Amino acid sequence: MKKLTIIFLLLISISTAHADESEGIIPKLLEYDVEVIIFEDANARYINSEDWPHEEAVTPPAPEETTELELPENLDTLSIDEIKAIDEDITPPFTNIKPEILSKEYRRINNSKEYNVLFYGSWRQTGLKADKAFEISIQDLENNHETTSENILTGNMKLVLGRYLHIYNELDYQRKINDSTTEQATINTENPKPSLLDEPEVIQEYEHYQISNHRRMRSKELHYIDHPLVGMLIQIHPVKVSAEKTAEKTAAP
Known about the structure:
The chain is mainly β. It has a domain at 3-11 and 30-50 and 74-176 and 210-251. The protein has helices spanning 3-11, 80-86, 103-110, 243-251, and strands at residues 31-41, 94-97, 115-126, 135-137, 152-161, 165-181, 202-217, 222-225, 230-238. A hairpin with a 3-residue loop joins strand 5 and strand 6 (165-181).
């Protein structure tokens, strides 16, 4: 399980900064910038290192249509999908931003022949307690890397603010195994050369690897989440509150 860690650490040196939070104290800053790099082992060297529970991805049912949906007072209590089900025009409780925190690490991984970057993105959101924290679909995040990998990454991430920051990941790594055909091409006896309409349909087949983890974090610390096939770098920075916003909060009744 830690083999990918050893190889990866030979490639990239991870330096961490001191956290703003004291031990066990909830940060006063409410907004955080979360930056993530997700990459795969280009050669899948450890794919046979253990037995994998293969499960087909299940598509959740579409929300039932209704004409009488009341808008809740606090959208943070809903998931992104639930918010979109209410109104597509509602701004989600997070904002995609330009990634900058891990730009150096991104360049090193992207220039390596050992790894393929699958996702590189960053977003800003409010730090919420577990009962109000929401999941963010990776498909709703802006990917700042044009991947050339044939493999697919889907799933959700969730940031929770408690005594510490917590990040939860429920990802589905779909690795292409081969192409299969539905039927053999038929040849017209009058035209011995098969036409395009006669060619069989090619179906791409994937194996699914569930990546589920939880990491307790401190802000401004770089965390590496290990997996035999997929690695993840995460760093979270508190958003500095301007003097104007501080004054507005103080003056508010």
